[in-house]
Amino acid sequence: MRVCIVGASGKLGQYMVQHALDRGYEVVGVCREQSVGKLDRFEGRIRLVPGPTNDPDVIRTAVAGCDGVLTVLVPWGVEGYATGTAQAVLDHAEAGARLVFSCGWHITLDGQDRYPWKLRLFVALFGRLARIARFADLDDQVEACRRVFESDTRWTVVRGSDLEDGPSEGLPVWSRHVGDPVLESNLTRRIDFALFMVHALTDDTLIREAPAIVGCTTPSARAHAGSARS
Ligand SMILES: NC(=O)c1ccc[n+]([C@@H]2O[C@H](COP(=O)([O-])OP(=O)(O)OC[C@H]3O[C@@H](n4cnc5c(N)ncnc54)[C@H](OP(=O)(O)O)[C@@H]3O)[C@@H](O)[C@H]2O)c1
After folding, report:
1. CB under 6 Å to ligand 1: residues?
2. CA nearest ligand 1 atom 31, residue
3. Signed CA dihedral, 6, 7, 12, 15: sign only
4. Mean pLDDT of 43-66
5. How far is the CA of 78 from the centre of ligand 1 (A)?
6. 84 CB contacts (<8 Å, ≥6 apart)?
7. Superfamily covering domain 2-227
8. Closest Cα to atom 22, ligand 1: which residue?
9. Which residues pair with 180 in a beta bridge?
10. DSSP strands (E only) in 97-170
11. Which of the two residues, 137 and 96, has the higher pLDDT score?
């Protein structure tokens, strides 16, 4: 399988590169020019297409011939970077390719999520301050995902809980709606978020789903193992 990783130089991206290589996949990475050095340890094992991830020409080149595209959607800046990135992938990925996007729990597919007050407060405060400071635009990630949800591609949008670093604990469990008891612990290892993204490429039950994930060894995942999806 040939896989393109859009946003390969970030923490999540680098973990995805490693998981994909571990599976024997051919990897094409896209990252901003100034971040190429972050991928030095993969030199000779992946093909790199440097450039802005919202540049349609960069994405067209990178996704050519790929069976799957893993895209890190980030809200940084106020120029619609996430929306441009998602649109470029939607427009240029091969017909029938598996498209897997990352985002946070604040994205909702059907409006049925029940958010903890802390998350609502964070989104409201961070969202407003970030936009005033022209540092980030959470609505950009929302718009990016809206376009993905409306597309007729074979998409999955993986919604990450709070993240921590550390060794893998295994494939996270997931549920359709934030507020479901299995997700209560709200914590996932970043390496396992990446594992779930790569896993989604070959799990057709995740097509047109927006799984909200949580670490498989967290207290809520253990307590509600029967209702968890994995
Ligand atoms: N952090 C959390 O607690 C959290 C929680 C839930 C979900 N998530 C989701 O997890 C995914 C990864 O998030 P992460 O926080 O762990 O970050 P990350 O993996 O380190 O990735 C950050 C990405 O953003 C890019 N980036 C940074 N500054 C940028 C800028 N000014 N303009 C354009 N791109 C820029 C980085 O590219 P360079 O390498 O070129 O800098 C990198 O590809 C995202 O989809 C996020 O929504 C995160």
Report:
1. 7, 9-13, 31-32, 35, 38, 72-74, 76-77, 81, 102-104, 160, 162-163, 190
2. 76
3. positive
4. 98
5. 14
6. 53, 54, 55
7. NAD(P)-binding Rossmann-like Domain (3.40.50.720)
8. 10
9. 178
10. 98-104, 154-160, 163-164
11. 96
- Given the CA of residue 141, which atom of ligand 1 is nearest to it? 47
Residue owning the nearest CA to atom 47 of ligand 1: 103
**What pLDDT, on a 0 to 100 scale, did the predictor assign at position 230?**
63
From its phi and psi, is residue 197 left (phi > 0), alpha (psi between -120 and 50) or beta? Answer: alpha
The minimum-distance atom of ligand 1 relative to the CA of 161 is 6
Half-sphere exposure of 177 (CA within 13 A, CB side): 9
pTM over 0.90: yes
Structure tokens that stand for 78 in this block: 């106020």
Structure tokens, 135: 């540092």
Domain boundaries, the chain: 2-227
Pocket-testing residue among 33, 74, 188, ligand 1, by greatest number of atoms within 8 A of Cβ: 74
pLDDT at 59 over 90: yes
